[in-house]
Amino acid sequence: MANPVGILTPEIFNDFREKFYADKKNLLAQNVCTKNNPLDACISRANTAETNHVFQHKITEVKPMTNQKNSGRCWIFATLNVMRIPFMRRHMLEDFEFSQPYLFFWDKIERCNFFLHNIVKTAKLGEKVEDRLVSFLLRDPINDGGQWDMICNLINRYGLVPKTCFPESWTTECTTRMNFLLTSKLREFAKILRTIVEENGSDDKIEKTILEQMAVIYRIVGICIGIPSEKITWEYYDKSKNYHCVGPITGLEFYKQYVKPYFNVDEKVCLVTDPRPSHPFNELYTVEYLGNIIGGRKVLYNNQPVETLLQLVAESIKDNEAVWFGCEVSKRFASKSGVHDLKAHDIEVMFGIDAQLGLKKPDRLIYGESCMTHAMVFTAFSYGEDTKVAKLRVENSWGEERGDKGYHVMTGDWFKEFVFEIVVDKKYVPADILAVFDKEAIVLPAWDPMGTLAE
């Protein structure tokens, strides 16, 4: 009897083996890669020699370099890194950080509440647990990551505080264990809520149950992270060593009085580039069930060509304004040297494949090969000989070990392939692009890659 189609037979493996050893380059590659990180072994010497951290247009950068450590809080770090620049200029500070743990605490609380209400909503719609939607919601109910509109929700409701007023805890720097506890409880709570809905329980009973569940969530998060004080007092020295004292004041009052005049999150807009044929440019999109606060603003995506995003980044930086952005950080990235470049690795030479770029950007989104995974900040750029943006400087939140004391270099070509969204002030955006925000948003399914959260 003949073997079924698709069986990998000994004859096939013999053919593979003979072809592998027939190419002596494979032997050298095997010797190198079995003793080293395969991607580090592929780093291009020629590319490294041509890379530098000198730029034509650069904003006034500030200290210290931040470090999110073992957490998925990049979206919070990137936002606060952008916001602290004008704040530090105004208050003449030598070094400063807003409290990332403060926003992280409130995001965990609000997002658990958001998740539980989504479970109720899907149950009322008759969605089964086995269906794709509910399965997706249950898969990772309390992800650390986020999107721009989600950070705006937190800041507009809870404000900001200096990091000295609410510092890191062990859990904020290593979130896995707390997330494990929260995930377990949220799935347990989801079953309880779905049972109430199936038994035609009243809305009052549902809300009472959610409040009881949220008390448990609050206790877990409060124990692991600490609980922010209702009011803070901030004492500091400016660059001239003059003493200042602010407070007692709430986080929201602190934002409105001391930060918002110099960085108003409501004056910033998020533009994305999604080149899939089914998602035309100059349209507004949102993702179903994506968010973090009940009653907060929706996550909205104004879809524009990537060249538009690159141009607006340049205009912002020339005006001394840093730019929040989201990208797929892991592709064609030389981590230790902090280089984002399509030519950073000689993968073709080592493995004989066109790694990661065999698919074009639209197809990478469609086939699950690409999505936004990380948020960082643009602080500088240079034009090339063709007057187009050739390279950009990137402030990351992984400490000082990589790149130029934590700053990375990104080529314009890498930007076009792996950057998916930017946030800029409205004043830099043409009126016709701003008008897209007035359109009714096209709703994408919860699992759409544009809903991926930056970690």
Describe the model:
- The protein is 42% helix and 15% strand.
- By secondary structure, the protein is an alpha+beta fold.
- It has a single domain (57-451), classed as Alpha-Beta Complex (Cathepsin B, Chain A), CATH 3.90.70.
- β10 and β11 (389-395) form a beta hairpin.
- α6 (100-124) packs parallel to α10 (176-198) and α10 (176-198) packs antiparallel against α11.
- The protein starts with 9 loop residues before the first helix and ends in an 11-residue tail after the last strand.
- The mean pLDDT is 96.
- GO terms for molecular function: cysteine-type aminopeptidase activity; cysteine-type endopeptidase activity.
- The active site is at residues 74, 374, 396.
- This is Bleomycin hydrolase.
- Keywords: Cytoplasm, Hydrolase, Protease, Thiol protease.
Average pLDDT over all residues: 96
Cα Rg: 24 Å
What is the number of independent domains?
1
Unreliable sequence segments: none
CATH topology: Cathepsin B, Chain A
SSE class: alpha+beta
- CATH level 1 name: Alpha Beta
- What does the largest sheet look like? 12 strands, mixed
Annotation field: number of helices: 17
Give the CA-CA distance, first to last residue: 53 Å
By CATH's scheme, which homologous superfamily applies?
Cysteine proteinases
Q: Specify the oligomeric state.
A: single chain
Gross geometry: globular
The total beta strand count reads 14
Percent in helix: 40-55%
Looking at the overall shape, the CATH architecture is Alpha-Beta Complex
Which percent range describes the beta-strand content?
15-25%
Protein name: Bleomycin hydrolase
Enzyme class: hydrolase
GO molecular function: cysteine-type aminopeptidase activity; cysteine-type endopeptidase activity
Keywords: Cytoplasm, Hydrolase, Protease, Thiol protease
